[in-house]
Amino acid sequence: MRVPLSWLREFVEVPQDATPDDVFAALVSVGFEEEEIVSFDLTGPIVVGKVLEFVEEPQSNGKTIRWCQVDVGEAHGGVRGIVCGASNFVPGDTVVVTLPGAVLPGPFPIAARKTYGHVSDGMIASAKELGLGDEHSGIIRLVEWGVDAEVGTDAIALLGLDDVAVDVNVTPDRGYALSIRGLAREYALSTGARFTDPGLREDVAAASGFPVTVRDDVPIRGNVGATEFVTRVVRGVDATRPTPPWMVARLTLAGIRSISLLVDITNYVMIELGQPIHGYDLATLTGGITVRRAAEGETLVTLDGQERALFAEDLLIADESGPIGLAGVMGGAATEMSASTTDVLVEAATFDAVSIARTARRHKLPSEASRRFERGVDPLIAPVAAQRVVDLMVELAGGTADALGSSLGAVVEREAIALPAAFVPGLIGVDYAADRIRETLELIGCTVEDAADGWTVTPPSWRPDLTDKWTLAEEVARVDDVDKAPSILPTPPSGRGYTPAQQGRRRVANTLAAIGFVETPSFPFVSATQNDLHGSATGEPVPGIRLANALDQTTPFLRRSLIPGLLQTAHRNLSRGTTDLALFEVGSVFLPEAGVVYGTDVNPPRAQKPSDEMLAQIEASVPPQPRHVALLLAGNVSPKQPGRAAEAAGLEVALDAIRAIGVAAGVTIDVAQGARAALHPGRTGVLSVDGAEVGYVGELLPRVAADADLPGRVTVAELDLDRVLSLAGERVVVASLSTYPAATQDVSLVVDAALPAAELRAALVEGAGPLLESIRLVDDYRGEGVPAGSKSLTFALRFRADDRTLTAAEATEAKLAGVAVAEDRFGAKIRD
What's the sign of the alpha-carbon dihedral 129, 131, 135, 140? Predict the structure, then answer.
């Protein structure tokens, strides 16, 4: 929210010597965030000049320039010759002249320079060149702006270009601060300066006779779409009159583009009071106004010229001809105020915040009006805002206030909040005096009445965010300097720290990062197709959690797998030239069970621990959300180097990473041949721990990789990390190292070609006993010397004892014990 200081001073006593930084400091102390200082970013001399005469000179490029003689006053050199390309002025016009030495926004310094055969001693300025708007086809004629000033007058002060605004960030729960009224009140709270509330007027004229009906057939959350609807009529306006420079300057600093006098007045009042205003050309209305929901098939051309298909939940402003506006969002083009408008119907209403927010998002049509309505507008300010618009249209547009209008409004009652006297000091940790608590709440607009153990507090109409004693306590701390609250770190109880599961997840992530993978967290939103393909082994449709209000309608489901996010990250990196990728992610997946309804409405009590029964209800209301770890490899694991070819990243690298995960988790992860819908047949492995399946690894099918715009081979792996860690139990991850040497032996066994190598390896481990330190598959041979339908698997074995140096005989005995188990179980034979 941008706040011009001259505007702020109309409602609160800001010292004349106060700088923007001083105002920032005051507003930051009551909870706002400092953004930037906004000004017109120009310096003088910029003065009022009078065009005495000019000569039109056609140029060879087809353009005609005017060689002008302009009087800028004796103090600024008298009459100066200036070249001007505009043609919208005549001799005798007063204009804005930027003299040599001036600097315009850009920055654009002004100097005497030779152009078109003349020395132009300055420049006659347009509105755009001064930062007052987008109009640059013609220069400013002060008579059109309603300004009468002597030659030589400082134009910077005359046009309000010396004003400055501070821009503060307003959080969504403080919609009242999206106005000069609201921020002036906050400045007063911070500094103690006297505040004059522009919302308290007793001269609001009564109006009646204009038919207004609220017919809300689809109330949202039980709330009626419009609770207040005030209309006023102003007749005989001159819509062609210029907007006064002071209003243009203030709107510009506030971030609002000047459009026309009538529209500028409605925008001005919206910024001033926080109440969005809409004006209709009364002559274009058919009958009265009805506030209703859209009917099927209705359309509306909005002020931006777009025809919009309406939805059943859209709240509309309609007359007898049909829709004429999206309530609280944007008006319709058919009834907009134009240069031919003579009679205006002014509308000031209060609309349901949820309805307006949904409409704005549904149509992708955010506006200054919807921004305020969806955060909450003071329901009592509508009559005051309408009267303010009427007054300005009478004053600036020459109109006459009419008695025709309407005033439809509900009784606004805020529920009183019980606030015990000891609650605020106990919650905040500051010993606030009772009188100070009461004074602070009254300063923010609350009505405070004494009660048995404290007070009964009724929040003001403009503060919908004050709903309970906790929010009242926060207000006391905010206004009375939250920095007074002591910073005391609690002493952690001894023996506490990360849980075993947290430690395990950190070990796994740190291990993957240490071996060269890069962690890339991604959004958990996917399409149904992605869930089906990567969230199950078969690729058949699986249950998914659909978001009620998805950010992107193409990805409305919560993920069942981490792979889609890694594929998207890989595609983004490849599109930017990074071709060698080793990525991983640790995150939650969402695995709803078929037929189970999730999301039941459970509201735990505040400030106390929920019961075991309620915790069970909460747990049952959400789907299982195990944490997974996933890997993606593409390109090369090591680049081409002198004397060494590039090494492609494939299944071997992925399996090494999986073994590293197992070491970090404290388990041995076995791999066996498997199949998945998204992975290449024959290049897919099932991962298991002690016979329990925990994940998979494999190479993406070419068509799946192509659909993700990933060229070449892409290897992925995904493990249920929570399950892996649970299977690890209390196993010791780090073992002490033996000081005795190892004995190494190899063994080649001939087995059936269909036998998974992991099963043969397990048999060897089981038979070899505790002396076997490690076992690694080093060769898979099928060919001459091996019977058809068989294969020869070679394992490298390493034996070691903790208390002695092993003999070759002991190592051989252990090896043969393993071979015996393999022979008994699978008929394995030592290859000759």
Answer: negative
The dihedrals phi and psi of 716, each to the nearest 5 degrees, come to -130, 160
Q: What is the pLDDT of residues 23-76, one digit of tens each?
A: 999 999 888 889 999 888 888 899 999 999 999 999 888 889 999 999 999 989
Task: Return the half-sphere exposure (C-beta side, CA atoms, 13 A cut-off) of residue 523.
Answer: 10
Number of other CB atoms surrounding residue 502 within 10 Å: 11
Distance CA 375, CA 438 (A): 27
Amino acid at residue number 688 = S
SS3 content of the chain, % helix, strand, coil (to 5): 30, 30, 45
Closest CA to 272 of 177, 348, 195, 181: 181
Cα dihedral 512, 514, 515, 521 sign: positive
Beta bridge partners of 450: 455
Cβ atoms of 502 and 468 closer than 8 Å: no
The Cβ-side half-sphere exposure at 409, using a 13 Å CA radius, reads 19
C-alpha span between 590 and 627 (Å, rounded): 9
Q: What is the largest CA-CA distance in the chain?
A: 118
* Alpha carbons 391 and 401: distance in angstroms, whole number: 8
Q: Which domains does the chain have, with CATH numbers?
A: 2-37+169-191 (no CATH), 46-158 (2.40.50.140), 208-409 (3.50.40.10), 418-484 (3.30.56.10), 500-600+611-728 (3.30.930.10), 743-830 (3.30.70.380)
Q: How deeply is 554 buried, as exposed, middle or buried, from its count of CB atoms within 10 A (0-12, 13-18, 19+)?
A: exposed
Q: Which of 179, 174, 226, 168 is nearest to 384 (CA)?
A: 179
474 is in an annotated binding site: yes
Task: Please tell me whether 475 is known to bind a ligand.
Answer: yes
Q: What pLDDT does 218 receive?
A: 63
Q: Tens digit of pLDDT for each residue in 699-727? A: 999 999 999 999 889 999 999 999 999 99
Look at residues 239, 211, 205, 234 and name the one whose alpha carbon lies nearest to residue 402.
234
Helix (H, G, I), strand (E, B) or coil at 424: helix
* Residue 184 near residue 379, CB atoms below 8 Å: no
Q: Decide: helix, strand or coil at residue 757.
A: helix
* Helical (H) or strand (E) element with 231: strand 226-235
Which of 527, 597, 536 minimizes the C-alpha distance to 558? 527
Which residue did the predictor score with more confidence, 146 or 630?
A: 630
pLDDT surpassing 70 at residue 559: yes
Question: Which candidate, 736, 731, 692, 733, places its Cα nearest to that of 507?
Answer: 733
Reference 634, options 573, 676, 691; nearest CA is 573
As a whole number, the mean pLDDT across the chain is: 89
Q: Please return the burial class of 395, using the count of CB atoms within 10 Å of its CB with bins 0-12, 13-18 and 19+.
A: exposed
Alpha-helix runs per DSSP H in 708-807: 721-728, 757-768
pLDDT confidence of 220, banded at 50, 70, 90? low
Contact 43, 26 (CB under 8 A): no
The torsion defined by the Cα of 450, 453, 454 and 456, in degrees rounded to 10, comes to -60
Check residue 602 and give its pLDDT: 73
Q: What is the mean pLDDT of residues 197-212?
A: 88
Give per-residue pLDDT as tens, 732-783: 445 567 889 999 999 999 999 989 888 899 899 999 999 999 999 999 999 8
pLDDT band at 137 (very low <50, low <70, confident <90, very high): low
Tokens representing residue 497 in the block: 């720290």
Confidence of residue 493 (pLDDT cuts 50, 70, 90): confident
Q: How far, in Å, CA of 206 to CA of 210, rounded?
A: 12
Single-letter residue type at 213: T
**Through-space distance between the first and last CA atoms of the chain, rounded to whole angstroms:** 85
With a cut of 90, say whether residue 563 has pLDDT above it: yes
Consult the annotation and say whether 670 binds a ligand: no
| Closest C-alpha to 508, from 695, 333, 340 | 695
